[in-house]
Amino acid sequence: MTASFIACNARRNNKLERSNAILSEIALHDTTQVELIDSLYNFGTINEGEKVSYNFRFKNVGKKPLVIINASASCGCTIPEKPEKPILPGDTGIIKVSFNSTGKKGFTSKFISVEANTEPAFPILMVTGDIMETK
To answer: What pLDDT is recorded for position 123?
Structure first.
């Protein structure tokens, strides 16, 4: 039974990898346009060690499905989660960003770069705020 489960899981992972490769290929040829609903999140003042997260919203205002190929942050303390499925024309999507303030203090700003099939390029997202040192 375990072998059957492992084999099924491996087939599912291979199918997902092929699907993502196909979406990336489509994204290289069919561009669309994006409109940001949120591009900056200021979390205010938090204590060092706190974690915050925010859902950046965007809308596909073009005529082709919008595919997020990659989302990366300027620091390992900031983790973006991109949508796995294409965002259809007229639909809204989110990129969830989590920030961990452990080891940080003072004002901070983190940038999130998004690679997508948009023309012009997907704008930069930013998380800012103040971190109070804990004693």
So the answer is: 97
